[in-house]
Specification:
This protein is an alpha/beta fold. The protein contains eight helices and ten strands.
Length: 243
């Protein structure tokens, strides 16, 4: 059967504190993987004190990456809202694409990964988390053959149904086929998450997996991990760097 690459829409969420360190490495890795022109979504870069002008920070993005689409949010909306709004914007730019991928700014991945995923996607009624090497998921892939997808680990909440709710550890690199993207954006849980006074601005990975599980979709992780996290320690993480 002839290989068909499919139509992809993809983006990277970032904050300006990572302009000089993590972001360049991530973009370079994505280019080698086949995602060479992601839409950049920057949270909190701001406006200058001069009316009707971008800040110098935004100008740095435009001059350094003139070939990339750019969306800037000001004031900062923080992690969950930034991811959700960015994914919605990606979808609305091409609502009939085959694949939608949302990446964060702190990972590296394999060369030609886009082609590999298109040739070897996860099962139907699923979405793909490219980062497997977490404490929840490493036991899942232990001793499993390379090149295989497996349902991600279950949550350990005592009040949960262990046959339904997955843990969803990490939103570093997520890929959704078209129907899965429909399910995510149509889920009330993504909106309800924002009303949580303690976690509503963060824990986007938990919101995503809960929304997808409720819609009858499963998160799948790959053996071996297709991505490696490169983020800083928690004191300088994306969520903590915002006001």
């Amino acid at each position: 059967m002839p290989y068909h690459s499919g139509r992809w829409v993809y983006g990277v969420t970032t904050v300006y504190q990572r302009f000089d360190n993590l972001l360049p490495r991530t973009l370079a890795s994505l280019k080698l993987a086949g995602w060479d022109t992601p839409h950049l979504f920057v949270d909190g870069a701001g406006l200058s004190s001069v009316k009707h002008r971008y800040s110098e920070l935004v100008q740095r993005y435009e001059s350094t990456y003139p070939y990339l689409p750019l969306t800037v949010r000001y004031p900062a909306v923080k992690c969950h809202a930034h991811w959700y709004l960015s994914f919605l914007q990606l979808f609305l730019t091409d609502p009939t694409a085959d694949y939608y991928a949302m990446f964060q700014d702190d990972f590296v991945c394999y060369r030609n990964l886009r082609e590999y995923i298109t040739r070897n996607p996860c099962p139907e009624k699923g979405y793909m988390s490219l980062l497997t090497n977490t404490a929840t998921n490493e036991p899942i892939i232990k001793d499993q053959p390379y090149g295989t997808w497996h349902e991600g680990g279950l949550t350990n909440r005592p009040d949960s149904n262990p046959n339904l709710w997955q843990a969803g550890r990490g939103a570093v690199a997520l890929v959704f086929k078209r129907e899965a993207a429909y399910a995510l954006l149509g889920s009330p849980k993504m909106v309800e998450h924002a009303t949580d006074t303690n976690r509503g601005w963060r824990k986007v990975d938990g919101a995503i997996v809960n929304a997808m599980n409720q819609a009858g979709y499963r998160e799948y992780v790959h053996c071996p991990s297709l991505a490696q996290h490169t983020g800083h320690p928690p004191e300088t993480s994306t969520t903590r760097s915002l006001p």
